[in-house]
Amino acid sequence: MSARAYANPYLAGVGIGMVMLGSFLLVGRGLGASGAFSSVLDVRTNGFAPLGDWLVVEIVGVIMGGFASAYAAGRFRFAVERGPRITDRTRLIVAFAGGAVMGVGAKLARGCTSGLGLTGGSLLAVGSWVFVLAAFAGAYALAPAMRRVWR
Predict the structure, then answer these.
(1) What distances in angstroms separate CA 112 from CA 27, 64, 123, 128, one per listed residue?
(2) Is 36 exposed, middle or buried (0-12, 13-18, 19+ CB in 10 A)?
(3) In Å, how far are 30, 51, 70, 78, 110 from 21, measured between CA atoms?
(4) 129 and 64 part of one domain
(5) 36-64 pLDDT, tens per residue?
(6) Domain span holding position 142
(7) Domain termination site, one of 78, 111, 129
(8) Half-sphere exposure of residue 132, counting CA atoms within 13 Å on the CB side?
(9) Which helix (H) or strand (E) holds 33?
(10) Fewer CB within 10 Å, N side or C side of the chain?
(11) DSSP-derived secondary structure for 68-79
(12) Helical ranges in 47-125 per DSSP H
């Protein structure tokens, strides 16, 4: 099975919007990710079932959907994506460290980029739109340096 082209970003955006609408209609809340990790950690202290929390169920669905999408597109494989000047080990260490920093940041900010950008943005929260614009500006500013690392 050969890999298919990536999804059209505009169609994917409409799809995310429809998922967000469905989320509000079905469970009365938007999307987010960082709260799921807090809920799983609360199981030890509070003793409730983690799958009883909407965000944990959402993350399980995201993982299953990611695997299903990769398989359907012919892209399912175990590999480390990296540039030619970095080893697999270094790439994994840097990725883990970056994820840890993002997790700490999400906890300190009391929310993650998906909750702030998607849910807050869909509710037209001014702070969410300021964040999204700042995140895109930062990404564009950093992109040339990252491009050099991956070549």
Answers:
(1) 19, 20, 16, 11
(2) buried
(3) 8, 22, 24, 33, 23
(4) no
(5) 777 777 766 666 666 677 788 888 899 99
(6) 82-151
(7) 78
(8) 15
(9) none
(10) C
(11) HHHHHTT-----
(12) 54-72, 88-109, 113, 121-122
Contact 37, 103 (CB under 8 A): yes
- How far apart (Å, rounded) are the C-alpha atoms in residues 87 and 93? 10
The count of other CB atoms within 10 Å of the CB of residue 112 is 22
- Amino acid of residue 33: A
Same-domain check for residues 104 and 71: no
Given a cut of 80, whether residue 1 has pLDDT beyond it is no
Closest listed residue to residue 3, CA positions, set 67, 59, 75, 71:
75
The 10 Å Cβ neighbour count of residue 70 is: 13
Q: Return the closest-CA partner of residue 16 out of 120, 138, 122, 109.
A: 122
**88 to 31, 75, 83: CA distances (angstroms):** 32, 19, 9
How does the average pLDDT of the chain come out, rounded? Answer: 85
pTM confidence score: 0.71
The phi-psi region of residue 98 (left if phi > 0; otherwise alpha if psi is between -120 and 50; otherwise beta) is alpha
Q: Which residues touch 37 (CB under 8 Å, ≥6 apart)?
A: 103
On whether both 66 and 7 belong to a single domain, the answer is yes
